[in-house]
Amino acid sequence: MLLYLPIAEISVNVFVIVAMGAAVGFLSGLFGVGGGFLITPLLIFYNIPPAVAVATGANQVIAASFSGALAHYKRGTVDLKLAAVLIAGGIVGSAIGVWIYTLLRRIGQLDLAVSILYVLLLGTVGGLMLAESVQAMRRVKGGGSGEVRRGHHNWVHRLPLKLRFKRSKLYVSALPVLGLGAAIGILGSVMGVGGGFILVPAMIYLLRVPTSVVIGTSLVQIMATAAITTILQAATNETVDVVLAFLLMLGGVVGAQFGAQAGGKLRGEQLRALLALLVLMVAARLLVELAVVPGDIFSIALPNGGEG
């Protein structure tokens, strides 16, 4: 069943788009990521224009994150105070990100910049997470704990303006939390991602938030930041395709519920290892797209007789 997308200006199979939303929603509920780092490349692979994929992907992130966050809130695994501070930083970051997105689009470098950022960020974060999670699983096999060690305080815990986050059992400066939220806001606006693939590892390894609390809290922050990004993108660049967004949301809401249930059956180190593998697979796929020579190479003739 084909449906025409007015902003993307392309016809798509409804069932394929809904299935994409459901699959990414499942992963969102399972890992605590918005799923934007998956849905945006998937849409681009499906020939949706990158500008539309980036801006519209944020809508699917909202729906999937809300559905997953609701499931985690019912289980009591959401730190609302921590999420509120992250959101405050995300508001500022989103505004900066939309400005960067507009600038890159104006100079014609948006597609290349998005692809390179994806490969660098996903490859780095995925590799670090995989190495740590494998070590954690070895500790569990030897009778130890698979949770990230929380006794050691790094430089983050020596910063001023400290706040107490009771649900996460943290007493940490608000500065790195605000900075992290702002970074996620920028990534969300430029790359069309929820930023969970950065936020989740940062909360676990940098702030020392327990894995059980990270997932639900991450989804709340991602949901709010994605909503702000969508509004700014629609108003500034007019690249949000409502029809495409609705189809993605339809599948994402259902998938996130099943993902949250599945996530409750896995240990923290197992979740981190699976997320790391998923992140690396997406990075590898995008790297191949950047490296492989296109089958049809063409140039555009300029009015003065030159070539572009």
Automatic annotation (TrEMBL):
Topology with respect to the bilayer: Multi-pass membrane protein
> Is the keyword 4Fe-4S assigned to this protein?
no
- Name the Pfam families for this protein: TauE (PF01925)
Q: Which GO terms describe its cellular component?
A: plasma membrane
Tell me which domain of life the UniProt entry assigns to the organism this sequence originates from. Bacteria
Q: Which UniProt keywords apply?
A: Cell membrane, Membrane, Transmembrane, Transmembrane helix
Question: Where does the record locate the signal sequence feature?
Answer: none
Transmembrane stretches, start-end: 12-45, 51-70, 82-104, 110-131, 174-207, 213-235, 242-260, 272-293
Could you tell me where this protein is found in the cell?
A: Cell membrane; Membrane
Q: Is Membrane among the key words of this record?
A: yes
Describe the family membership recorded for this protein in Swiss-Prot or TrEMBL.
Belongs to the 4-toluene sulfonate uptake permease (TSUP) (TC 2.A.102) family.
> This chain belongs to which protein, by name?
Probable membrane transporter protein
Q: Please report the organism this UniProt entry assigns to the protein.
A: Aureimonas jatrophae
